[in-house]
Amino acid sequence: MTPFLQENVVFREVYCFLGGNEGNAGWCRGDGILPGGFEWAAYFVAGFAIMFILVNAALLGAAVFVWSERRLLARFQARRGPNRWGPWGILQPIADLLKLIIKEDIVPHAADRLAFTLVPVIMLMALLLSLAVMPFARNTYLVNLNVGILYIVAVSSMSTIAIFMAGWSSANKYAMFGAMRGVAMLISYEIPLVLSLVGVVLIVGSMSLVSVVEAQTVPFLLVQPLGALVFMLGISAELNRTPFDILEAESEIIAGYHTEYSGIKFALIQAAEMAGVLAASGFLATIFLGGWSGPFWSGQLGAFWFLVKLAGFVLLFIWIRATFPRLRIDQIMAFAWKFLLPLALINFLVTAVQVYFFGFYQADVPGELTRNELWIMAAINIPVALVAIGIFGRFSREKVRVPEPVFQKAAPSPQAMEVD
Amino acid sequence: MYGFGLAKGLLVTLKNFIRPPFTIQYPEERIPQHPRFRGEEFAWYEERCTGCASCAKYCPLGIIKIVTSEGGRSPQEGGHYDIDVFDIDIGRCMFCGLCVEACPYDALFMGSGFERGQYERQSLVITVDELREAVKKPSTWFRPQLEGSGYDPHKDKALDWREVGREDWAWRQKEKAGARIQFRPARVSAEADDGQAEG
Asked: Of the candidates A76, A83, A394, which has its C-beta nearest B16's C-beta?
């Protein structure tokens, strides 16, 4: 019996109901309904129960998110959105899914069949794996990894590989364009994304997401405003959402890397993308807004507080998508390297100095910062964030080039001809 | 301050988020149409039509087909032809209304409907029987007497050929064939009660 699984509510209940203390568990109230010697079955069923709940919650959540995004996006554009099937059109994603399942599953003739087929699987798998460490409520998580944050970063960057596989195996130039753009963008944004989390890790003294939640007596959104900003923008780029959606830019390269996908494969790719937004909002809520801890009844209403925060971030993502136009690739790169990376480094440096100053970071006894110390850090970090954004915003601002008047001279000079 | 433009953009979308959507849910609710709306299902009054085919000649697309034969008796005076064929190919009609302008006897009016979608191109051709049986709610386009009386084809009842009146613009009255020849004496009373002028 792996020790961390017994902390999981679902696992403990199912395991104790079936297996109980007969399997040397010792932490159940009594014996289960299965006879002795069958604790492996209890273990299997309990593990499967968690998996079932998590996978279905992710996919159902993706469906709900598709609906809510279409509704809210429509409202942001003074439209109504889908409102035909079901009350407020809530059954629309089911109709979409049915349509996609019924459609023909086309594989291009020149495609690399194996890689082409594996892409949706890998994308969805990367997403579902990243959900494993997310604490949904008190003691409600799949695993409490002590390298949780590293695990998220590692697993979520697997989708980059899937995107490149999709672009390469489709044998389609638009898919390849999208994949190349995507890989360039995603790899660039990994760096500020990871660096923005280092400040949190320094404060908490642990990479486990459960300890991150427990350490947040003050929301890290206030303590780490720069980190939160950089993480939010970085994860928004990782999700390929609108200000950063150059890899599936409809108006330029048909649908980017998933141009050739149809039917259930396309549905899976879409589900992975949509659930990715939920996962990203969940991680934002967990790392920067205190996860399941709320103003009151954090133990009983933990899932509720978590969902409220998650919904807030989802709304923010939809709002950003509804507002900003798509950036060019050079703007995106400049934004990552000239703006986000320096901000993440400043955040890292300032936090490191503060943590060293508060002197809790002994090598063997990782303590916790008190509430007052966190408030002091917040009071320092918020002005630092504003100043840093002001300074580096000025640096990364694109120079406005005033175009030369075309009809200034009667005859174009040789230099002007060369420029053209 | 860097990022101020972004915040301004976010506020613009937020303003749209708060205000009610503009969309009209079409089958359930409709935009009220203007009485001068040029729509389908032309209102054609056979009693007035002499079969002169002015409408067919003026049609820029040539989509009106008229075949006449001698005989019959008209409520209007003078020679009369039976209208055997009066086909209007709505599928190609651009609703310019020149046929209505051209009609010297005010027998053709624009219709007021717009929901005649069909599955085949053939069924988009309005035949003479359909024109006869149609509920005649004429549009007031190019018919100032209707507009002056406040007639609204989308709300009011259908009109028969006596009720629609004659077009009474002074500058056009002299050119109206039917008006000049037959209704010259009656036109004085037409100003008092234009609905009953011909009757």
From this structure: A76
Record the tokens describing residue A395, joined without a space.
């640096």
What residues of chain B lie within 8 A of the CB of A76, using their CB?
13-14, 16-17
**Measuring CA to CA, which residue among A272, A283, A306, A287 is closest to residue A61?**
A272
Of the residues B17, B19, B25, B26, the best mutation for testing chain A's interface (the one with the most A CB atoms within 10 Å of its CB) is: B17
Chain B closest-CA separation from residue A357 CA (Å): 31
Whether B13 and chain A come into contact, CB under 8 Å, resolves to yes
Residue A358 has pLDDT above 80, yes or no: no
Strand partners, A140: A137
| Whole-angstrom distance, CA of residue A67 vs CA of residue A73 | 10
Query: B12–A323: do the CB atoms touch at under 8 Å?
Result: yes
| CA separation for the pair A108, A23 (Å, rounded) | 52
| The pLDDT of residue A78 | 85
* Between A403 and B50, residue with greater pLDDT: B50
Burial zone of A19 (CB within 10 Å; 0-12 exposed, 13-18 middle, 19+ buried): buried
Lowest average pLDDT, out of A231-240, B41-50, B147-156, B165-174, goes to: B165-174
d(C-alpha A86, C-alpha A96), whole Å = 13
Q: What is the mean pLDDT of residues A20-26?
A: 63
Q: What are A38-76's pLDDT values in tens digits? A: 777 777 787 788 788 888 888 888 889 999 999 999 988
Q: Which of A76, A77, A389 sits opposite B2 (nearest CB)?
A: A389
Given a contact cutoff of 8 angstroms between Cβ atoms, the answer to whether A49 and A16 are in contact is: no
Q: Is the dihedral of CA A153, A155, A156, A162 positive or negative?
A: positive
What pLDDT sits at residue A336? 86
Q: Which two tokens stand for residue A398?
A: 């694109």
Determine contact, residues B58/B102, Cβ cutoff 8 Å. yes
Does residue A72 sit at the B interface (CB-CB below 8 Å)? yes
Tokens of B190: 């037409």
Three-state SS for B160? coil
Stated as kind and residue range, the H or E segment containing A144 is: none
Q: What is the pLDDT of residue B58?
A: 92
Mean local confidence (pLDDT), A171-189:
88
- Report CB contact under 8 Å: B21, A319: no
Phi, psi at A186, each rounded to 5°: -65, -40
Chain A CB within 8 Å of residue B3 CB: yes
CA-to-CA distance for A385 and A389, rounded, in angstroms?
6
